[in-house]
Structures are given as C-alpha cells and as structure tokens.
Design brief:
The protein contains 23 helices and eight strands. It is of the alpha/beta class. It has three domains: about 130 residues, no CATH class; about 180 residues, P-loop containing nucleotide triphosphate hydrolases (Rossmann fold), CATH 3.40.50; about 70 residues, Arc Repressor Mutant, subunit A. A five-stranded parallel beta sheet has the order 2-3-4-1-5, with helices on both faces. Strands 6-8-7 form a three-stranded antiparallel beta sheet.
Length: about 475
C-alpha cells in the first residue's frame, strides 16, 4: 500500500504513512464515508475521523492549498498537473497507482464528475495509455517484493502479527500450503520489526547443507553460528558447549549467556523460514522444536528471554509425505493465510492495469475466475499476469485452465504427483470430487487433503477447494482408477 500511494508520500516529502493513514486515504479516494470505514476496519468512527482530519491538514500544508475529504481527487489532480514532475516519465509504481486510482475513481461516488473533469484537461485514453505497461509487471514467482503495489493485505492478519510482535517473548507461527503468500507476509513483518529498531535474524533452512542435519549436535552448532553471524558477533560456540550437558542445554546457555546479553536492550526477531526442512529430519525436529517451545515458555518468567521474538514459517504439504497426522509444532499464535476474497481479486486486477475490472460488470466477470481458482493468491496472480499482457482472454484462460495447455499445468502436476504417492488420499479425493455435496472423510485423510489446499473442511465434511481442482482431478483420477 505504501508504494501504491507513492505519489502522495512524495507530496508529504517522503513522510512515511502509517497503515491506518493509508487505509483512510485509500478508502476516501473510493468515496467511502468515515462510518463505512469504521465498520470495515473495526476502528472507532471518531478515531477514523481524527486520522483523516490530520491527513488532510498535512496535505494542505504540503501543497499550499486546502485539501478535504470531499475535494481530494480534484486537489491532488490539480497539484500534480501544476507540479514540475507532472510532465516527467512516471515510475512503474506511479503508473500502477494512477491506473488503479483512476479506474476506481470512475466507479466511486464522485466518479462521473471526476471523469468529466479529467476529460476537460486531457484525454482519459491518453492518460491510461501512459500510466501502465504490462511488460513492466514481473512474472509471479516467489515472494512479492517489499514496496510492490501488487501485494494484497490480509486484514486483520498484518495488524495482528505486528501487534503480537511487540509482546516480549512472543512466538508466531505462519503456516499455509505453498504459494499462499507466507514469505511475502514474513518480509513485511520483518520490515515492521526494523521500523521498531529491533534486530533481525533471518534464517531460511533451505540454505543449510544436507550434512548439517547429520546429528542434533551438528545442527544446533550450525544454528548458533548462523544466528551469531547475523547479529554481527564473533562465534564462540566452543566456549559454551558442554557435551556432558547435551546439545540443547548448551544451545540454550549460548543464547542466554552470550547472544541475548550482547544485544543490549533491543529485542531480536528470530525469523525462521521454510521450517518444513527441519520436519524432514524427525530426529532433529523432535528436539529442536520442543527447544523453541521451551524458550517461548521461559520468556514468561525470565526477562532475558523476553528479548527474543520468534517467527516460524512452514508449508503444510509436508504433512503428507512425512506421514504427519498433525502439525509437529503447535505453540504460540498461529496464522493461517486465507484465499483472496472477491473484492481483493478485483483490487489486484486493477493493480495489474485491467481497467475493465473497475465496474460491476467487470467484477461479475472476475467471479468466474474466483470460482475457478478459489481465490488462491498465486493462481489469481498468474491469471491476472497473463490477462494484463493480453496473452489470452479470460474466457480462453478459463476454458484451458485444467488442461495440459493451461497456465496452471505445472501447479496441478505437482499436486497430482503428491497424491499418487498416497493411495488412501487418492481414494479420499475421488470421493470428494464425485459428489456435488459435502462428504464425510476419515479425519486423517481430511486433514492431509486440507493441508495440501485441495479441500475445504467443515468438521469432517469436505468439499473441493475450487472448480480447477474438480475438473483436473476428475480427469486424472479417472485414469488412475482405470475408468
């Protein structure tokens, strides 16, 4: 959100806007009332008004003209036109912001008048042709970069995580199937922690060589050295390691007597990503994970351990090949990433520059995409990427979605390969897709299919997550069963 509204922050001389300010600005641009904002966000109406009033005052001072909620569009447009930067090439973020904002403005409460005003000054067609180029959008792969206008927030998860992170000794666990946005969320949490002047230790277990997992002792020594280097301290593991006391106790003493002592009063965030790599080594996991749990419990009674804030991130597909019937690490506050809502899909479509998505008819067209992929963040983003580049129409994309020629073929094959290794899950999935109603599954099979993101559960009652999975697995499982 911060970079989508980069133009406004430049007016404020790069003064960072708080999330609540961004929310009020964005909703005001769409013509929402303070009362509507209050109901949507959960904040009190008077607080929203106070934030808005201060924001309009800051903008008024910055541009030298009165800015109010009612004249926001006109005031900002006029200022940008009159500023020296109006005729200069815009950055990619500004282009996406303007395309999104103008599209939204046309359908907002004041939309008709705004469109008339723009047409008096310049052609809307010329504006839109200049503000967005699909070739400047990167292919959806990996975490959404910090500052990218393509990041969609998950209210209230971001606020919940940030509020939890300031609690001494907290432990946050972020879990979801692959490509749901875990790392993107983690990166924003880390950015928030840096704003609080917390020290950051980011550890991705995919970086570890396989030999690191040869034994618990070797793993914990590597873990201690890695954290020490991240804190810009000199490793001195041997000074604290005592084989008679054991690796876990030695590791605890090293953190307690060395690392947490040398970081002064500043909290340190230990962000552990791709922790499923540890799950793959049960002998390591059965000691390492309880150790983290114990450290979290220590913080309730020991001020030294209150400096440590831990965040653990892992995928849930790992439960299937490892024969796990439940998460091996249930502790702290758990964050499960949900799929995108219809409004979020429409928001993202506009950020991709799809102007047709701005009105009610466009929103209705997007409902077919929502039904096909169930709001899965990666699948939605991949579709919008192809649509923004005019590589195919929405109708063509949906028609070929479940076929080998479709844009989701690799994602679907990965899920099929995982299922093919688990005959009992294949059978359970067949039951789900064969029924138009919810079906009751064995609790373990239901848990694993949900962990793969294939089904939705209500108790043990299961239904397929989306039409894409129904179509694809109907075809593939029929072949598998010899039908």
């Amino acid at each position: 959100m911060e970079d989508i509204l980069q133009a406004v922050e430049r007016i404020l001389q790069d003064k960072p806007l708080a999330s609540i300010q961004l929310f009020v600005l964005y909703q005001s641009w769409l013509g929402k009332t303070y009362d509507e904002m209050s109901k949507t966000s959960g904040y009190a109406n008077h607080y929203i008004k106070e934030i808005g009033s201060q924001l309009w005052q800051d903008l008024s001072v910055a541009i030298g003209k009165r800015v109010t909620k009612k004249n926001l569009h006109v005031a900002l447009r006029k200022h940008l036109q009159e500023s020296s930067s109006w005729g200069k090439p815009t950055t990619n973020n500004e282009k996406i912001f303007l395309s999104h904002a103008l599209s939204q403005a046309k359908t907002s409460y004041h939309g008709n008048q705004i469109e008339k005003n723009f047409k008096r000054k310049c052609s809307l067609e010329m504006v839109f042709s200049d503000v967005f180029s699909a070739s400047e959008i990167d292919y959806p792969s990996g975490p959404v970069p910090l500052g990218s206008p393509l990041y969609i927030e998950h209210p209230p998860l971001e606020e919940l995580i940030c509020s939890e992170l300031i609690h001494p000794g907290c432990l946050i666990r972020i879990k979801a199937p692959k490509k749901m946005g875990k790392s993107s969320l983690l990166n924003r949490m880390i950015a928030f922690a840096k704003e609080q002047d917390y020290q950051i230790v980011y550890l991705d277990f995919q970086e570890a060589d396989e030999e690191v997992f040869a034994s618990l002792d070797k793993f914990l020594r590597w873990f201690c050295i890695y954290v020490t280097r991240q804190l810009n301290l000199l490793p001195c593991v041997d000074d604290f390691w005592d084989t008679d006391m054991g690796s876990k106790v030695s590791c605890k003493i090293y953190f307690e007597a060395y690392l947490l002592q040398y970081i002064a009063e500043s909290p340190v965030v230990l962000a552990l990503n791709e922790v499923q790599r540890v799950f793959e080594h049960p002998k390591i996991a059965q000691d390492f994970l309880p150790m983290l749990r114990f450290w979290h419990e220590q913080a309730k009674q020991d001020q030294t351990w209150q400096k440590l804030r831990m965040v653990v991130v892992h995928t849930t597909e790992i439960y299937v090949p490892l024969k796990l019937n439940q998460s091996p690490f249930n502790v702290g506050i758990t964050i499960t990433l949900p799929p995108f809502t219809k409004s979020q899909v429409q928001d993202l479509a506009l950020r991709y520059g799809l102007e047709w998505a701005a009105d009610s008819q466009g929103a209705k067209r997007l409902e077919s995409l929502q039904a096909m992929v169930g709001g899965h963040p990666y699948l939605v983003s991949l579709a919008l990427y192809h649509l923004s580049g005019e590589k195919m129409t929405l109708e063509m994309l949906l028609e070929t979605a479940s076929t080998p020629m479709g844009i989701y073929s690799q994602h679907l094959r990965e899920l099929l390969n995982l299922l093919q290794k688990e005959p009992e899950l294949m059978s359970a999935m067949q039951q789900v897709i064969a029924s138009d109603d919810k079906v009751e599954l064995d609790a373990i099979a239901a848990y694993k299919l949900e962990s793969m993101g294939l089904i939705q559960l209500n108790g043990n009652q299961a239904c397929v997550m989306c039409e894409l999975y129904r179509l694809y697995f109907s075809q593939q499982l029929a072949k598998y069963s010899g039908c």
